[in-house]
């Protein structure tokens, strides 16, 4: 599944570690999601969406 | 519980298990080997190294249960599935070779060594497919 996480994070000038801290996950988790190596669960996807003030569909895209 | 606290609890459990393992193994080797104890005491002491090893598996299980980071938990599960699969495969292969008298007898507890090698392979697999070894590396 593709996502816009890296772009959204860059727009806010957050590091991967800052985003990881805000989501209470590891930096490796953020990196794996950004690079498409891991698709988050629905609860984590909602936390990401809430953090950016967007819907899940705005961030995660169908292949 | 923070990621650091979870890791510390895991490390403490592993340290306790390994301490019991080392002390009981050396104790059993000496006391039973020298014939200083026997019967029920020898049984109890001889059981301890194996039970301490079971404690190591308990520590890993609890690490998976307590891990709040879903990605790290997935890596842990993946690594330990690969480790278990590798250990079972090695035990099976060696067992048949042994039953046909092609290799020497290997003590059953050596399966744990194969499992440890499997953990390394699992971590390597995580690194190659997901970009990181996992939480306990």
Summarize the structure.
The complex is a heterodimer of chains A (63) and B (137). By secondary structure, chain A is mainly alpha-helical. Chain A is built from five helices and two strands.
Give an overview in words.
- The complex is a heterodimer of chains A (63) and B (137).
- In chain A, strands 1-2 form a two-stranded antiparallel sheet.
- Chain A contains 5 helices and 2 strands.
- Chain A has helices at residues 5-11, 16-23, 27-34, 42-52, 56-59, and strands at residues 2-3, 60-61.
- The termini of chain A are close together.
- Chain A has 63 residues and is mainly alpha-helical.
- Chain B has 137 residues and is mostly helical.
- Chain B folds into 2 domains: 1-68; 69-137, no CATH class.
- Helices cover 80% and strands 0% of the residues of chain B.
- Chain B has helices at 3-33, 39-66, 70-99, 110-130.
- The model of chain B has no long low-confidence stretch (mean pLDDT 94).
- At the A-B interface, α3 of A face α3 of B.
